[in-house]
Amino acid sequence: MTGLGLAPVFAAVVARDLTLALRRRSDVLTTFFFFVIVVSLFPLGVGAQSNVLRSIGPGVVWVAALLASMLALVRLFASDFDDGTLEQMVLSPQPLVLLVVAKVFAHWLVSGLPLVLVAPLLGLQFDLPASALGVMVMTLLLGTPCLSLIGAIGAALTLGVRGAGGLLALLVLPLYVPVLIFGAAAVSASVSGMSTSAHLSVLGACLLLALVLGPWASAAAVRIAIE
Amino acid sequence: MLWVLGPNGSGKTTLLRLLCGLLRPESGIVRWKGEDVRGAPDGLHEDLLYLGHAPAVKDDLSSRENLRFGLAQTGIGITPGEADAALDEFGLAGLEAAPTRTLSQGQKRRAALSRLALGAAKALWILDEPFTALDAQAVQLVQAHLARQLTRGGCVVFTSHHEVELAGHAVTRLQLAQ
Amino acid sequence: MRFNVWKYASPPTFYRLAGTLAPWFLGLAALLAAAGLYMGFFIAPTDFQQGESYRIIFIHVPSAWMSMFIYAVMAFWCAMGLVFNTRLSFMMALALAPTGAMFTFVALWSGALWGKPTWGTWWVWDARLTSELILLFLYIGFLSLHAAIDDTRRADRAAALLALVGVINVPIIYFSVQWWSTLHQGASVSLTRAPTMAATMLLGMLIMSLSAWMYAIGVSFLRVRSIMLGRESEAEWVRELGALTR
Questions:
Q1: Chain A hits for C166, Cβ within 8 Å
Q2: pLDDT for B139 beyond 50
Q3: A162 in a structural domain
Q4: C102, pLDDT greater than 90
Q5: I need a labelling partner for B54 at 20 to 30 A (CA). Which of A190, B93, B130, C27 fits?
Q6: What percent of chain C has pLDDT over 90?
Q7: What is the number of structural domains in chain B?
Q8: What are the Cα distances from residue C224, in Å, to B151, C18, C98, C216?
Q9: Which residues are CB-neighbours of C20 under 8 A, at least 6 positions away?
Q10: Are the Cβ atoms of A89 and B70 closer than 8 angstroms?
Q11: What is the CATH number for B72?
């Protein structure tokens, strides 16, 4: 038996959640395919005029990312809550905030990062230029962790509650709106050839804020849910 | 050794969770080594081993993985060999690598209880219904671990519907009324 | 004699106090509203640019101010409850939320009614309107979360945490017209500069705001009494009350 420092503990929790996700691949793939399908439905529904697609593309990809992220969030703490392992985390001498960040990070790796990687391909359906696709990847890379961090608060607050999925959406979507606005606006700005630095800076600021406050609020929410 | 007794619904689990600091008391303070358990929980958490009603095992992980990850998140690293030794002690030899989903209720509980074999460093053991779903041999095993904990100078607080007798150790009973 | 604030953290004491004060607040609110509306619709002059339609400002601005102010007060009581674990703090926050939501709704609707003749559109997605809409969702989220959790203590604490997470929205609403170039007009009323509107308009608006504030206090007091009765129905003091009314 050896004592573990903060970094190995973080790595162990990430490894655990990744192992669990890999063994329940269907959950993970469902979120991913939901994203792909939702985005792909829009050109079919709206018609193939490039100028229309180009103007709605950024928004569509971003909203789909939002919705996919929310679908995945319900699972973040729920299974641990049900089988008693979340309780053990609360009782751990290691900081709960660290364990929560590790879980959110693993969750993002499995639910958020794939969206970031596939988005450029989907963006092609909307006739977006390459530079805009690059900006899209950038905004999703900054934004999806925000969504996971903010969403974790909602996931923790709604643990074990009736109708958790719908309630989670209601609680978390208002908090997502700034990320959505700046993310989509950055890509639209790039399409029009305008500067994106302001939007990306704000997104970066949102991410920092979410990183600092999110896990702390989520840990507090977990403690409240465990009571 | 404190044995909390009472009929169903009398609040035994609630009391244990209060002692762990999971619940906030309406009034009064729970202290461990003089410190408020809600205000400064780290002191208690360093010394505490808690087994609640739920077995706290993930169905999709093997018993070995459950044990290793479970301890890792408390800051303790164990080798696969150490994990297997603990699991074997609790009669799960050969089943260490199987997903706990495939185990019977009794086997799952034994997988959860194998933490006792690795909990020598924890001064306070709080166990909610540790003897449920166990056969006579497993009950003896758990009692042996409890005795060892007490001999080391540790404390055990538990609930049980079975009569518990440990040679050489006095049991304090706390009877909760309805 | 020291004024002991903590005395009023006790539900039965506050119940009596709230019951005595509420009618006064509501009465005052009614008087101020009458005065404010009279000023707004009969005394204040016609606006140079907007004609008569600007008069909705006497409803719109007070509601908007109250929607933000009530959220801040609600968040304050949530914080108090989480820190001091006082039951009454959570009850007060819960009592304020529906009134806050109402004012937000009124602000949005009156804003739309104003926007149509002035900007030519019922709605625009600029920073201030969007963040005010988010505020409405935050209120609704607070009330929904509280209603969804059966255990009252956990419901109080979870909703309180949510309210505190959302409080970041209030400064965003307030400063949005400074930070972004928005369609919504900038602040005409400031604590540091002289106001840029006619004195009677300003006075009318302030009177209406005060009226809204008094109304909010009065109605929250009534609501919190009702919440107290519901939660403490087993307690001694409630049963005594019941005996009194028999």
A1: 174-175
A2: yes
A3: yes
A4: yes
A5: B93
A6: 39
A7: 1
A8: 55, 8, 11, 12
A9: none
A10: no
A11: 3.40.50.300
